[in-house]
Specification:
This protein is of the alpha/beta class. It is built from six helices and nine strands; from the N terminus they run αββββααβαβαβββα.
């Protein structure tokens, strides 16, 4: 074989390697850390512990109204998204929390529609209230800019707020 017959083959292999390296670099550059995904800057003021909880009215995954004024006692709001792997990882702990008799859990899905929330919750067998927040209005009112995030409201006042995933013992400590 002469060098002229080897050259096209070698050039093709070199070109293929370069294409793979460039595509790999682009993929790695675009890949996001999903442990806490930034979704937007809060539109409203940042909500602090001790502030009055913003009021909201929304529809749950089944189309039934959820009015924050009608929720009494201790309310644990978990802000999440169906595409968030950290949110999904903490679902067993959130479900365990929802099984407690001294707190009501409401999941608020950032910029998600009701059909997607319903499909997600039904597929996972979630038994606590699921609310779509398609325009991010509830999330913005609570100053939430990342998922997952957690807010505990007691008697209309924010008593705990944490951006990022929590373990069951962290959730229980916030309630005890």
């Amino acid at each position: 074989m002469t060098s002229t017959t080897k050259a096209p083959w070698i050039r093709a292999v070199v070109l293929a390697v370069i294409v793979v390296l460039v595509l790999g670099a682009v993929y790695l550059g675009m890949k996001k850390d999903e442990s806490t995904v930034e979704v937007a800057e809060p539109a409203g003021p940042v909500l602090e512990v001790g502030d009055s909880a913003p009021r909201f009215t929304a529809l749950d995954k089944d189309g039934l109204p959820v009015d924050s004024d009608a929720l009494t006692g201790r309310i644990w709001l978990v802000f999440n998204a169906t595409w968030c792997s950290s949110c999904r990882a903490e679902i067993p702990e959130v479900q365990e929390l929802a099984n407690r008799s001294d707190v009501e859990v409401v999941a608020v899905y950032l910029r998600e529609n009701t059909a997607d929330v319903r499909a997600f919750a039904d597929r996972l067998g979630l038994e606590y209230t699921q609310v779509a927040d398609p325009n991010g209005e509830i999330s913005s009112a609570y100053g939430i800019s990342s998922v997952p995030s957690h807010v505990l409201v007691e008697d209309g006042v924010v008593t705990f707020k944490k951006l990022g995933a929590l373990r069951a013992d962290d959730m229980n400590a916030a309630l005890d």
